[in-house]
């Protein structure tokens, strides 16, 4: 039996699209960020609350695993904390 997994793609170009990622609690999840613009500080995405930080090379998909054990809203942002998105984990 294959384990269900939530997979979300986020485009990074002058911000995050979508800026809000909705996930179900308790189901493994990953977000793939693809930066399509060479604008400033969007070359890094990080979240202290979700325990990830990764560089985003231009036009190269980068995948992070997202914990879904707790329900709530968790922020992520660019390297300079100027552009924000959030992950909403719900029951």
Explain the overall architecture.
The protein has 91 residues and is mostly beta strands. It has a single domain, classed as Sandwich (Immunoglobulin-like). The protein is built from no helices and nine strands. The chain has strands at residues 6-12, 16-17, 20-24, 29-35, 44-47, 52-55, 62-66, 72-78, 84-90. The radius of gyration is 13 Å and the shape is globular. This is EfeO-type cupredoxin-like domain-containing protein. Residues 4-89 form the EfeO-type cupredoxin-like domain. It holds the Pfam family Cupredoxin_1.
pLDDT under 50 segments (min length 5)? none
Distance between the termini: 23 Å
Content-based structural category: mainly beta
Helix content: under 10%
Helix and strand element order: EEEEEEEEE
- Any idea how many domains? 1
The biggest sheet amounts to: 5 strands, mixed
> What is the gyration radius calculated from CA atoms?
13 Å
Oligomer: single chain
**Strand order across the biggest sheet?**
3-9-8-5-6
CATH architecture: Sandwich
The coarse overall form would be globular
Q: What is the CATH fold-level name? A: Immunoglobulin-like
Protein name: EfeO-type cupredoxin-like domain-containing protein
Pfam families: Cupredoxin_1 (PF13473)
Domain EfeO-type cupredoxin-like: 4-89
């Amino acid at each position: 039996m294959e384990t269900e997994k939530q997979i979300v793609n986020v485009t990074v170009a002058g911000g995050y699209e979508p800026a809000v990622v909705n996930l179900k609690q308790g189901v493994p999840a990953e977000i793939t960020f693809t930066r399509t613009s060479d604008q400033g500080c969007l070359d890094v995405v990080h979240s202290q609350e979700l325990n990830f930080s990764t560089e985003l090379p231009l036009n190269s998909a980068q995948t992070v695993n997202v914990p879904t054990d707790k329900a709530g809203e968790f922020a992520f942002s660019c390297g300079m904390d100027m552009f924000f998105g959030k992950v909403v984990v719900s029951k």
